[in-house]
Design goal:
The complex is a heterodimer of chains A (329) and B (535). Chain A has 329 residues and is of the alpha/beta class. Chain A has two domains: 147 residues, D-Maltodextrin-Binding Protein, domain 2 (3-Layer(aba) Sandwich), CATH 3.40.190.10; 139 residues, D-Maltodextrin-Binding Protein, domain 2, CATH 3.40.190.10. Chain A is built from 14 helices and ten strands. In chain A, strands 1, 2, 3, 4, 5, 6, 7, 8, 9 and 10 form a ten-stranded mixed sheet that branches. In chain A, α7 packs across α14. Chain A starts with a helix and ends with a helix. By secondary structure, chain B is an all-alpha fold. Chain B has one domain: MetI-like fold. Chain B has a two-stranded parallel sheet. At the A-B interface, α1, α2, β2, α3 and α8 of A face α2, α10, α11, α14 and α16 of B.
């Protein structure tokens, strides 16, 4: 019985070891499977190209690419957060795409200067506030949330989430380290509750009255608003520029199917794919020519921070140390 | 070759894959990253060290108390519902800790239904003490982990035998004295083994503590690695974690000394009937733990699943593969652990060191171990690739990667401790005299194992398989890293959905983990009862 079970287990294991088809595109993805599956399946159906993907967290996926080196089966690396894309490029895991089409579809501040990765959707991290207890006139920049008038009224998510690390990194890029540390200390003093481990919980805390304002990615608010259109929370766009991050992709340095990876990447930046790629998670398309989802459009237009998002990667470690020092857990 | 050196070699062979995976951690000591280390020492380590130690101690005490007291109640007493609780109290194990944490916080937070109701009834000032606190993590983790102690301690009490307690009675011990002076000391290897698993899992945990945002050594390892980009500092912290586990293990062994734990279990002791209010008190206690650890979380998950709507059509295939993987690994890991305890029985001290190393995989944060295993596997594969290429002129590439073989190997490294602890404890009950009498009858070698030892080890073996089965179903980082295309388990589904914060959608796959855990729990606890009864 045991022997038979072992054989049943081993047979497919050995079978699955056969060489991959050369035309197939293999994607290593740290973007949630339910967010990429529909669109990759559509590409496969339209072009007849087989697309396979492996999902994991970005850190392990990068270690995997590092250790597989020249032998990797991966062709395209897809992840969330510019810091991760920057790190992948920095570690020599990606190669330049050099594509006219990609350069014209994706704005310069949302892609790597050496063409190694391209943002495919934009995630805006902005201020959410209670419409019952906050006068929108009170709201200003991210820095203003450190003002003592917010004492006991602010909610934040943990500093361990990369979204906050990127936000603080971009603030360092904008204000310098000293000023940023002062702001972060002010935030911590204003906290109404220990930092949360998810944006959704944070928004629920605002709704329940535990605090009045917080910083969140817009799509988390979108999900709650979709369920309950009358939710008493609104989004505020800081006038000096809204912090944006990307989810994006790059061609794996040691791919054995560069053409296939490039074709898929170009398609993902095209009008056809962009709409769905962003809309499935209520994000913003990276390609500015594409209209946003109506629910998202209703939040109004905003001025994004135009500093290249790769700075978030360069300054991430500095941002994390700063938050540790300031007691932002 | 002498038998003992043969068995020492076997023990080291079993330890070899773990040893290989751990080399990167040891080698990291050679390249300190001064800047990051300085920062960690000053701003991070003091807090996380204190947090980690209080968490491990708190969970050990609470899970130990729950596990031992419930095991004593269900194994040696009769009370209303006792037969049900005997197996039902194992079930919280099937509930991944991070899921339980999420449910607890969702229910008890300021914005959750309980506090909202309290404010509606008693005004805005009403509320609960903060859930996301040290006490909160300790309680949730203890509820998720006490079954390890429960299962092992129960096994110990069931195999204790009637005579031991009767001796106590003849000495004038009360029931309570009998427990503290006889049963508890004689169950020590089991309880210690269970506690060892609880402590290792607490130290390695990332999922539960991050839901609580409670910083421990493990979260510091992850931040050093993925936020400060300092792999060497992360591995050095992991090394400290391993040292800590080794110290705890060695200290426990020392304390245990040379005591022997054999028992003549020819006759099971007759359970004591708890009459009147004592019986109902026992029922209430067992019910409370069952509800908190299993009932309430399941109800909440059910409510979320109904909200989330249509189940994914792929779930049938996922269910099949999850079960197949868990069952396959349970058999494999239990077999390897059996070989290891057998080797220890027949070999000297060097073999014990091998066993220590071989079982360290359970104390490491999952992602660290997953990456360590994967890079070693790639290195071995590259060697094989060039060797085969040189011999046949046709290099096969990374043929091991993404096969079930690699995945099972990784699970073995991860979960060997889980199978080893119950088997090692069970082995304590086998005196040498069994072997000697068997040999005098001309029974030796494999027949000795099959005819004499295996039947006596059955309780331990079944416990080992059950623990590994459930652990594999909950496992995330190694599954994510080593699974072949399409071999997603329910834990992978849960990960996909929770990574983007869609907890409500993740309720259904989480429920599948729990449901799939039910079957082996019922089967194996039933089989265990028979195994003990048949002795």
């Amino acid at each position: 019985m045991f022997r038979r079970l072992l054989l049943t287990l081993l047979a497919p294991a050995l079978l699955s070891a056969c060489a991959p088809d050369a035309r197939e595109v293999v994607v290593y993805s740290a973007r949630g499977e339910q967010l990429i599956q529909p669109i990759l399946e559509r590409y496969a159906a339209q072009t007849g190209v087989d697309v396979r993907w492996i999902n994991d967290k970005e850190g392990p996926l990068m270690q995997r690419l590092l250790s597989e080196d020249e032998q990797t089966p991966a062709d395209l690396f897809l992840t969330v957060d510019a810091g991760n894309l920057w790190l992948a490029a920095e570690n020599g895991l990606l190669q330049p795409a050099r594509s006219q089409q990609l350069n014209s579809n994706i704005p310069a501040h949302l892609r790597d200067e050496s063409d190694r990765w391209f943002g495919l959707s934009v995630r805006a991290r902005t201020i959410a506030y209670s419409t019952e207890r906050v006068d929108p006139e009170m709201l200003g920049s991210y820095a203003d949330l450190s003002d003592p008038k917010w004492r006991g009224r602010l909610c934040l998510r943990t500093s361990k989430k990369v979204y906050n690390q990127s936000l603080v990194a971009m603030m360092i890029a904008g204000h310098g380290e000293e000023k940023t540390e002062e702001i972060v200390r002010g935030w911590v003093e204003n906290l109404a509750a220990p930092v949360f481990s998810s944006d959704t919980r944070l928004l629920e805390a605002i709704q329940a009255g535990q605090c009045d304002a917080g910083i969140v990615n817009t799509y988390y608010f979108g999900r709650l608003q979709k369920k309950d259109p009358s939710i008493p929370i609104a989004l505020h766009w800081p006038p000096e520029g809204v912090h944006v991050n990307v989810s994006g992709a790059g061609i794996v340095r040691h791919t054995d199917n560069r053409d296939g990876a490039l074709a898929l990447l170009e398609w993902l930046s095209s009008a056809e794919a962009q709409q769905e790629f962003a809309a499935v998670n209520l994000e913003y398309p990276a390609n500015p020519a594409i209209a946003v989802d109506p629910l998202v459009a209703a939040w109004g237009e905003f001025e994004p921070d135009l500093i290249n998002v790769s700075r978030a990667g360069e300054l991430q470690a500095e941002a994390v140390r700063l938050m540790d020092r300031a007691g932002y857990r | 070759m002498r038998a003992s050196s043969y068995w020492t070699a076997v023990a080291w062979l079993i330890a070899l894959p773990t040893l290989a995976a751990l080399t990167a951690i040891v080698l990291s000591l050679l390249q300190p990253d001064a800047e990051t280390l300085h920062h960690l020492r000053r701003f991070v380590l003091p807090r996380v060290t204190f947090n980690t130690i209080t968490l491990a101690l708190g969970v050990a005490v609470l899970a130990g108390t729950l596990g031992v007291s419930l095991a004593w109640l269900t194994a040696m007493h009769r009370f209303p519902g006792q037969r049900f609780f005997a197996w039902a109290l194992v079930l919280p194990m099937a509930m991944p800790g991070y899921v339980m944490a999420f449910v607890a916080i969702g229910l008890l937070e300021y914005s959750g239904p309980v506090q909202t109701l309290m404010r509606a009834l008693f005004g805005d000032a009403a509320g609960l003490p903060p859930v996301r606190s040290r006490a909160g993590v300790i309680v949730v983790m203890s509820l998720a982990l006490y079954p390890y102690v429960y299962l092992l301690a129960r096994n110990a009490f069931l195999t204790l035998g009637a005579q031991a307690l009767e001796v106590g009675q003849s000495l004038g011990y009360s029931r309570r004295q009998g427990f503290f002076r006889i049963a508890l000391p004689m169950a020590r290897p089991w309880i210690a083994g269970g506690l060892m698993l609880v402590v290792m899992e607490t130290l390695a945990d990332f999922g539960t503590v991050s839901v609580f945002n409670y910083d421990t050594f493990t979260t510091a390892i992850y931040s050093s690695w993925f936020a400060l980009f300092s792999l060497s500092s992360a591995l050095q912290l992991a090394f400290v974690l391993l040292l800590l586990v080794l110290v705890v293990a060695v200290a426990e062994r020392r304390l245990r000394g040379r005591a022997a734990y054999t028992a003549n279990a020819a006759r099971r002791s007759v359970p004591v009937r708890l009459a009147g209010y004592a019986g109902w008190l026992a029922t209430a206690f067992a019910l409370l733990v069952f509800l908190l650890g299993f009932g309430l979380p399941v109800v909440q998950l059910l409510a979320w699943s109904l909200e989330a709507g249509q189940p994914d059509p792929r779930y049938l295939g996922t269910a099949l593969r999850t079960l197949l993987l868990a069952a396959g690994s349970a058999c494999l890991v239990a077999a390897v652990a059996l070989a290891l305890v057998y080797a220890l029985r027949n070999a000297g001290r060097m073999a014990r060191l091998a066993a220590r190393i071989a079982t360290l995989g359970y104390a490491l944060p999952g992602t660290v171990l997953a990456v360590a295993i994967y890079s070693k596997l790639t290195a071995v594969n590259n060697l094989l690739d060039s060797a085969i290429g040189a011999l046949t002129g046709n290099a096969p590439g990374l043929f091991l990667q993404g096969t079930l073989l690699a995945m099972l190997l990784a699970y073995t490294i991860r979960f060997l401790a889980v199978a080893y602890q119950p088997l090692d404890a069970a082995m304590q009950r086998l005196t040498r005299s069994y072997d000697e009498s068997a040999r005098s009858l001309g029974v030796g070698g494999w027949r000795l194992l099959r005819k004499v030892h295996l039947p006596l080890l059955r309780g331990g073996l079944l416990t080992a398989m059950l623990l590994v089965f459930v652990d594999v179903m909950k496992e995330m980082p190694i599954t994510l890293m080593t699974r072949p295309f399409g071999w997603d388990t329910f834990a992978v589904r849960v990960y996909e959905l929770t990574a983007e914060g869609q907890w409500e959608q993740a309720a259904l796959p989480a429920l599948f983990i729990v449901a799939a855990g039910l079957l082996p729990v019922i089967l194996l606890t039933g089989a265990m009862r028979h195994a003990v009864a048949a002795r």
